[in-house]
Each structure stands twice: as C-alpha cells, then as structure tokens.
Amino acid sequence: MSQMFLGADGLPRCKWCGAAPEFLEYHDKEWGFPVSDDFRLFEKICLEGFQSGLSWRTILAKRENFRAAFLGFDFNKVACFDEQDVARLLQNEGIIRHRGKIEATVHNAARAQALIQETGSLAAFFWRYEPDALELSAPQTASTSAESITLSKELKKRGWKFVGPTTVYAFMQAMGLINDHVAECVTRLTVEQERAKFKRPC
C-alpha cells in the first residue's frame, strides 16, 4: 500500500493525489480519462510545457488564469498572437511569465493548425501513439516510453517546442492514452471502463 492514499471516503487512490487538496478532484475526474477534444489536447500539451522544471501543483493552481490568458487554448486564436500579446502575457502575474514558454505556446498553436491540415485533427494524430497495454511498464514507474519518445520526435520534426519525451509521456498519462493509475486505485477501473468505450479518433 506504499503507493496508496486513502481519501476521506476510505477508498485507496494513487499516492500522489494526497500531496495537495486540489489534486484529489483532478485525479478522480480528469487524470487518465481519454480525451479527443483538440482544444483540451492542445491545452494539456502546452501546460505540460509550462510545467517543465516546476510542479504540477503550481500549474494546476494557475490553470484558469492560463485558460483566460490563452483564450481557452483555442489554437486558431492563439496562433494570431503577436509580440504585443507576448509582452502583455509577460506582465500577467496569474501565469508562468517565462518568455520561451509563452512564445512556444504561440508558435505551437500554428503548428497545431498545420497538423490538423495534415491529419484531420490533433486527436487523430496523438491517438496513433497509444501504446499496447501489454507492453506498458508497471503504473507510475516510468517517465518516458518508446511511444512518448517517438511522438516527441514527430512533433519536433514538425517544429513543435517544449515537447520532450518526458513532457509528452506526462501528456499521454493525463489524456488517457495510458491508464497509469496503480492497480489498487479506485479510479483505475473507472478509467479502464471509459477507455473501453472510448471511440478512438481516426
């Protein structure tokens, strides 16, 4: 049970969700549930980039501020941001004021548009890299995988920034391409049921 956290309801969950009060709802309702919405996928891969070198708690606490600052992570709008927008965002105390990460988000928005032109949707592209469940490492024992390394390379080849293999693996965990809840976690079965009925984009 070393990987477990017991919630107020007495049910076991992944240990990490006990580290901060705001993690519990995120763990129970979002993390690992399959996502096919392009805006949510874009939001998550951008926020994982912002998290680089920081904690997810920092990003989660600022997530609504990020959503407001980047117009709901609508890549069609973000792709139109210019240097004035970047300067404005660098003064926004509600987000992470890192020029490289802000500029990467704007840059990646245009790359997202190009990728949709190429493949039809971000979801169709990302879900190509869903790993075979039988080949996965034990839950929460890896920080990269063969698929995250390959996906990272493919994104970088298309010009995306802040999409290293570890960032991409965390994105895959969160967006449900992997069910990385530990075996005893009460949410693992729920996620698995959602993944079973999820229609993979094509």
From TrEMBL:
<feature type="binding site">
    <location>
        <position position="14"/>
    </location>
    <ligand>
        <name>Zn(2+)</name>
    </ligand>
</feature>
<dbReference type="GO" id="GO:0046872">
    <property type="term" value="F:metal ion binding"/>
</dbReference>
<dbReference type="InterPro" id="IPR011257">
    <property type="entry name" value="DNA_glycosylase"/>
</dbReference>
<protein>
    <submittedName>
        <fullName>DNA-3-methyladenine glycosylase I</fullName>
    </submittedName>
</protein>
<keyword id="KW-0479">Metal-binding</keyword>
<keyword id="KW-0862">Zinc</keyword>
<dbReference type="InterPro" id="IPR052891">
    <property type="entry name" value="DNA-3mA_glycosylase"/>
</dbReference>
<feature type="binding site">
    <location>
        <position position="27"/>
    </location>
    <ligand>
        <name>Zn(2+)</name>
    </ligand>
</feature>
<dbReference type="GO" id="GO:0006284">
    <property type="term" value="P:base-excision repair"/>
</dbReference>
<dbReference type="GO" id="GO:0008725">
    <property type="term" value="F:DNA-3-methyladenine glycosylase activity"/>
</dbReference>
<dbReference type="Pfam" id="PF03352">
    <property type="entry name" value="Adenine_glyco"/>
</dbReference>
<dbReference type="InterPro" id="IPR005019">
    <property type="entry name" value="Adenine_glyco"/>
</dbReference>
<feature type="binding site">
    <location>
        <position position="185"/>
    </location>
    <ligand>
        <name>Zn(2+)</name>
    </ligand>
</feature>
<feature type="binding site">
    <location>
        <position position="181"/>
    </location>
    <ligand>
        <name>Zn(2+)</name>
    </ligand>
</feature>
